[in-house]
Amino acid sequence: MFETLSDRLTSVFSSLRSKGRLSDADIDATCREIRIALLEADVALPVVKDFVARVKERARGAEVSQALNPAQQVVKIVNDELIEVLGGETRRLRYAKTPPTVIMLAGLQGSGKTTLAGKLAKWLRDQGHAPLLVACDLQRPNAVQQLAVMAERAGVAVYAPEPGNGVGDPVAVARQSVDHARRQQHDVVIVDTAGRLGIDQELMKQAADIRDAVTPDEVLFVLDAMIGQDAVSTASAFMDGVGFDGVVLTKLDGDARGGAALSVRHVTGRPIMFASTGEKLEDFDAFHPDRMAGRILDMGDILTLIEQAQKTFDEQEAAKMAGKLVSGDGFTLEDFLEQMMMVRRMGPIKNLLGMMPGMGQMRDQLNQVDDRDLDRIAAIIRSMTPGERQDPKIINGSRRARIAKGSGVTVTEVNNLVVRFFEAQKMMKRMTQGMGIPGMPGGRKQKAQKPKKGRRVSGDPRKAALGKAGANASSSDAPKLPKGLLGNLGGGQLPPGLELPPGFDPSKLKLPGQN
């Protein structure tokens, strides 16, 4: 969603990197470009004015003028201010001292409240809680049935005593759900309320009555990040009519400019607590302002990538796979398929690569990444026999034709997979053997050094005699000093001209007082 804003800001900062010192004109030009980028991203005008004013004030201060790299310091200032606009620190849920904790969802129709209720319930279940979904949207057709389906997919319970479709009292359902949760030992209650296509008094009154009936610990305003500048006016209206404690952004995976979502926290003073980035139940997590700012400025989001990997990969399986990688030959196509499926469960490959720093400059290449390529590779491997997966060397021409026919691909694709697998095995073996670095286990042996050329013999007979005497003294037959007498000076050898008489053994020399 923030690709356009990210591209504009990245191009602004790239022009500063070649400057060793920033003048007032450079700062004004940079702030002007930042202002245009934010306005084009649909950020509210008051937010843009305050943001640019703070950046300009800090950029003209001592932290930039005295910095070794002013351009990087400006990027840091923009990053800090962007984090502040997005909320500063990550806001966590407040849980009630005495269960159940009641969470009420409010927002317009179409903002994704019901789907988000299922995502939040699954997220809480993964955190070790026992949530209960409550169907209080009794106006929208099939809203109760949709919530029941979401609860089943999330693996949580649902409380829906009324059929909906215009039948039932949502305030009474909300009030009864708290007592039901206590009896069934649910520690979190998520109340899904009704929405409208627009803001009206009936909507506000019903939401306020539900709020008064259940006294929620958290009221979350569900905001569609794609509605543009209406996000600010809608949030302000709900803030005045119902009041809320935090904001949940939905549809962040859309292609809208989305800058209005950046304005909600500044306008309402309420933090963004959660973000929904897809249609699956797993595409939901707590909102981290620092990580989102890093994504916008193309600095990557390594922490989120690590957290997703920790959720997906089992530690014991990872240790077992590491042992196979070290052995080289122990890594089979079966192991490769298992690892590929684990990576696939982390989410779309494009999104994973997009969390790496600097990937914003390779957006065209990322758009060409297709997860269906992984599905074709998986189909090829699953069309092999267990023996072929363990030892791909036995896959001959007839076997490759059978595998291609069973997986619906060409023989060439099967050949490419087998060849790439063998190359990967060789590469892993070279890495585990020290990659050919001298001195490492399995590395290449160091070449024997050529003996140095002897000293030149001078034409002067006296100098030649001295040189010959020095050569004799440094030969292997020359007597050496005992260790510790002169240390390691000259390797324990006497300097030329101070050699001992032939046949003299210093180890047999008896000093006074020795027997």
Describe this structure in words.
- The protein has 515 residues and is of the alpha/beta class.
- It is 50% helix and 8% strand.
- It has 22 helices and eight strands.
- The protein has helices spanning 3-14, 24-40, 45-59, 62-65, 70-86, 113-126, 143-154, 170-183, 201-214, 230-241, 259-268, 289-296, 302-312, 315-327, 333-345, 349-354, 363-367, 372-382, 386-390, 397-407, 411-432, 461-473; strands at residues 101-106, 131-135, 157-159, 188-192, 218-224, 246-250, 272-276, 284-286.
- Strands 3-2-4-1-5-6-7-8 form an eight-stranded mixed beta sheet, sandwiched between helices.
- Helix 11 links the parallel strand 6 and strand 7 (272-276).
- The longest helix has 22 residues, at 411-432.
- The termini are far apart.
- Mean pLDDT is 75; it is low at 435-446 and 473-498.
- It catalyses: GTP + H2O = GDP + phosphate + H(+).
Radius of gyration, taken over Cα atoms and rounded to an integer in Å = 36 Å
- Tell me the helix content: 40-55%
Tell me, briefly, the overall form.
flat
Average pLDDT confidence is: 75
Q: Which residues form runs of ≥5 with pLDDT under 50?
A: 435-446, 473-498
Distance between the termini: 93 Å
Strand order within the widest beta sheet: 3-2-4-1-5-6-7-8
Report the biggest beta sheet as strand number plus sense, adding barrel if it closes: 8 strands, mixed
Structural class: alpha/beta
Write the element-wise H/E pattern from the N-terminal end onward.
Answer: HHHHHEHEHEHEHEHEHEEHHHHHHHHHHH
Q: Please tally the helical runs, counting DSSP H or I stretches of 4 or more residues.
A: 22
Number of strands: 8
Strand content: 5-15%
